[in-house]
Amino acid sequence: MEKRAEADLPDSATGGWFKTTHWSAVLEAGRADPTQTSAALADLCQAYWPPLYAYIRRSGYSKEDAQDLTQEFFARLLEKQWLAQADQARGKFRSFLLSSMNHFLANEWRRSQTLKRGGGKPIASLDDSAEVFYEAEWASAVTQEKVYEKRWALGLFDRALGRLQASYATDGKAAVYNSLKDFLSSDVGEGDYARIGAELGVTKGAVAAAVHRLRQRYRQFVREEIAQTVANPADVDDEMRSLLAALQ
């Protein structure tokens, strides 16, 4: 979760991987038959329910009510075709989701009070990770918007880290990743390269080069994750700075 230090120096955005974003998925879903887009939307829900759950909890709802509200929000996002009203020109995908959630909390939940808890089909699988995060942040006295932004940022960096680990495993280099992963968030100490080199049977120079490649690949994955959530490539650097600020 904390492996993000080397993503704090953004490069200029390139469009090579800026082809299919969450915005394009949302806009397509808004135009299509909901029954044909449920799988794609389920993936989005699974990725983005934790920050919305944290936002609801910080707004004063109980754990159980926050779980119900989060599930109901995503169900209504699909059933009520709110996605058809989405406007990519508004900018950040996280802002769209938060605005939609505020609309839901102000209007839609009042009309769902007669539904029995757990009566609908779950859209996302809610575990206790978001609750653990919320409890840790409760004493910080930050606003629900700040809690939402921080949880969003942590989720994005975690997804990039998961992709990084998977890419090394796919290349048959899981052991290399496990030996080098701490260098993503830690400074290199005296003798660290020599120690890792001895473990892997390579020179210090080879370790230094491998760490450089690891950090570059992680930075790329972070930027790709961010690109999925903004309207155009020019917004990637600004969003990078915003997410890093949210983690301070």
Any key phrases for this structure?
single chain; 248 residues; mainly alpha; 10 helices; elongated
Describe this structure in words.
- The protein is mostly helical and 248 residues long.
- The protein has one domain.
- It is built from ten helices and no strands.
- The protein is elongated.
- The N terminus is likely disordered.
Lay out the secondary structure.
Layout: H1 22-31, H2 34-58, H3 63-79, H4 93-108, H5 129-138, H6 144-170, H7 174-180, H8 192-200, H9 204-227, H10 236-246
Short description:
Helices cover 63% and strands 0% of the residues. With 248 residues, the protein is mainly α.
Q: Averaging pLDDT over every residue, what do you get?
A: 76
Alpha-carbon distance between the termini? 14 Å
Largest sheet: none
What structural class do helix, strand and pairing data support? mainly alpha
Quickly count the helices: 10
Number of domains: 1
Shape: elongated
Order of helices and strands: HHHHHHHHHH
Give the proportion of residues in helices.
Answer: 55-70%
Beta-strand segment tally: 0
List segments where confidence is low: pLDDT < 50 over at least 5 consecutive residues.
1-21
